[in-house]
Structures are given as structure tokens and as C-alpha cells.
Amino acid sequence: MKPKVFTKLFGLFTLLLLLYTAVLVFVFRQLVEQGARETLHGLGSEALWSGLIALAVALPLAAWAAARISSRLQQVVDFTRRIAEGDLSARLDRVAQDELSAMETALNQTAERLGRNFAEIESRRQELAAMLDSMQEAVVALTPEGSVRWSNSVMQRIAGTQIHSGRPLVHFVRDPEVLACVSGALERKELCFGRANSLAPGRVFEINAAPLPSGGALVVLHDVTGIEAAQKSRRDFVANVSHELRTPLTSIQGYVETLIEDPDPNPEMTREFLGIILKNATRMSRLTEDLLALASVESPDYKLSLRPTKASMLVSDAIAALGGMVRDEGVQLQSAGAPDCLVLADSDAMHQVFGNLIENALKYGKAGKRIRVGARPLATEVQFSVRDFGPGIASEHLDRIFERFYRVDKARSRESGGTGLGLAIVKHIVQAHGGRVWVESELGAGSTFYFTLPLAPVPQGPFAGAGSAA
Predict the structure, then answer these.
(1) How far is it, in rounded angstroms, from Cα 204 to Cα 381?
(2) Spatial CA neighbour of 304 closest among 432, 428, 426
(3) Distance between CA 398 and CA 443 in Å, rounded?
(4) Can you tell me the distance from the alpha carbon of 372 to that of 355, in angstroms, rounded to the nearest whole number?
(5) What distance in Å separates the CA atoms of residue 112 and residue 108, rounded to the nearest whole number?
(6) In sequence order, what are the residues at sequence separation of 6 or more whose Cβ sits closer than 8 angstroms to the Cβ of residue 79?
(7) Average pLDDT by consecutive 10-residue portion of the chain (470 residues)?
(8) Cα–Cα distance between 213 and 408 in angstroms, integer?
(9) What is the DSSP letter of 200?
């Protein structure tokens, strides 16, 4: 405790003792006024010496008592200072059973209660922070002045920089839609919605900014890039399907109306019209089949029957099954060789993959007069290839050629009856096998379509040889 507190306590005790001495002198003086004069001097002297002796004895006792009380009060002051600084583990030692001891007990209980409450609050804060960090949405809390109070890890990644608490949000986020929603929540106390397109390159976010009851605002950013892409893909798909169906339907409708309205149709013209109708109906049938096939391979329920199969057998089966169709077009289907190593494959799905790739090569590489199919082993997979020797594909088309309905030469594709879905089906089947698919091409030198299949695991145990042979 500070010296002046001790001085005040000690002075108080001294004053009380002096007052006591003065009272004694006054009492004795009253008594001696009624006695003899010589007796007055003696009694006064005795009273004075008694007071001085009492004062000499009481002063050390007063100093000791003042020091003791001062020490205990100093402990209380130190205790409260530690509590104010956040040290909730501070406690007071009980040294006696008195009024100060009761106060010390009450203060210790208060500190213990505060410690439990703060521990519970900190635990809940950490749980809340963990939950907000695990969210896919970006969350940032703001003060009434627009400064950052807290932000989760997703917000940090989107901002592309470390967001520091206590600094204005505008220092880290410059998107005008986000700032406009924040302004509405802070100034007008309204729930604001918006859409941010420039917050992160190539990404779209929905903005929800809500005012907080205690002041400030909470901003939540929901990434809707995938949803936007899915909606665009669905719109494009519907538009493409409608376009692909409208052309043959219009043709069929026109020729049928002509046949119905002609009272005396020419047999040769009728046969020609019916042939055109059949061609368009066949085209619609192929489109429907490809749409069903694509929907099947894109479905989460699409299942493959994967079995260890020799890569050479997949290549030879594809050449044997499709060689006749290719020869009818005046093109040779050749083998470029294939290893006998085992791959995990669904034979029926692989027949569809090779069929689509060879048919695509026949449509666009027929001028080369040959198609070559082969495979070669890699470290953990086998790489298959289908190569044509036609005019090739320009580089700007290579990244999009596996998209649905994407055509390099739309006129030639429709003329040959193509639906624009074959390569998309190939991509999904290969990816379902755990492989990759790509194309390499050079103008004037043809194109080569590649895909990979993972190697089958080597059988272990005493029957490994028999299993491999089977």
C-alpha cells in the first residue's frame, strides 16, 4: 500500500490516543479541584505520566496494527489490478477470521466465477470461429464505423490478402456492389442483397449484408459460380437440343405436307421425299440415343463393370468390330500395336469409346484413307490412341472439342449425320474409368485422340498366376 495510506492509519491511532490522554487529564483535574491544592499537583503529575506511558505503549501497537491492515489492503489492491489486467487466476490468501477475511473470500469467489464465465465465453467463441471457418461462404463482421471486426478464412482467400482487424473494409475489398451493400446495412440499417462479379476473377458471389443489433454489420458472400455455370450449361444444352431437333423436324414436316397436298404424287418424287424423311428421322433417332447415352454416363448412378482386360484385346476387338464399316467408306483401319498388360476396363463402355473415336476419325479424316488404332504402356496406366491422317484441327478448337454439341465444321458434321455428342460421351466414360482424354493435331497432318486407362493391380497370393491367365 502507498505510504500516505499507512500514514493516515497511523495518524488516526495516534489522534485517538492523544484524545484519550486529554480526557484522562481533564477528569483528574476536575477531581482535584475539590481536594487540597497540594494534592492537585501530585494527581496531575501522575495523570500526565500515566498518559505518556500509555502513549508509549500504544504507539508501537498502533503502528503494528496499521502496518498489518495496510499490508492486507495492499494485497487487495494488487489483486484487483491483476483482475483488471485479465489475470483471472489471481487469488487472495486468508490470514484471519475477521471482516477483511470475509471481503477476501467474496473477492476470491467473484474472481473464480469470472474465470469460469470467461472460459465458457472463450470456448464458445472458438467454436463459433471454427464453425464460421468451416463454412463455404465468406463471412466478415464490421464495426459501426465500417472497420473489420472479424473475418473467416474463406474471406481471407477471396480477398487475396491478409485482412487485419480494426482497419476499414475498403482497404481490402474494392468491389462496388459489396461496398454498396455494406453502406446500406450500416447507414440505413437495412438487409441488403447484391451480386459481385469483380471480387475475384472469374467468380460470382451473392452478397447478404445484415445490420447487427449491437451496431455494425455482418456480410456473407456465397459463391454461385458453379450454379451460374450449371444454369448456363443447361440453357445452352436446351438451346442446342432444340436447334438440333428443329432442323430435321422442319424438313420432315415440309416434305410430309408436300406429299399430302399433292393429289397425284409422282412415284419417283414420293420415293425421294420418303428417303429424305427417313434420313431426318434417323438423324433424330441418333440424337435421341446419344442424348440418352450422355445422360447415362453423366448420372451419379452410372456404374461400370471393371475387369482386368488386356490392352491388346481392347484394340483388336475395336478393329474387328468396326473394320467393316470403315472399309465400306474406302478407309483402312490399321493396328499400331498394343501391349498385353492388363487394364481395368468395362468392355462394353470401351467399345462405345472406340466406336465414337473411329467414327469421328472417319467423318473428319476420311481424306487420309487410313485410321490407326494402338496403345502403349506408361508408368501406372496405358495410353490408347486413335489417329487419322485428314486435314487436322486448328489449335483454337482443341480445348473445346470435347464439349457437348461443339463442332469444328458444323456444315460437314450435319451433312454426315453427326450429333456433336460423341466426344462428350467419350470424355465422361474415360473419366469414369479414372483416365484422361485429350487430342493433338496439326493442320494438314491429321489428328490423334488419346485416352488412358489405369493398370489393373497385380494379383497376390498362391493363385496369382492362375488369376492372370484367366
Answers:
(1) 38
(2) 432
(3) 12
(4) 13
(5) 6
(6) 90, 91, 92, 107, 111
(7) 55 67 65 55 63 68 71 76 76 65 75 79 70 73 87 80 83 86 88 86 87 87 83 75 80 86 82 87 81 79 87 92 82 90 91 90 81 92 92 85 75 56 89 92 89 84 43
(8) 59
(9) S
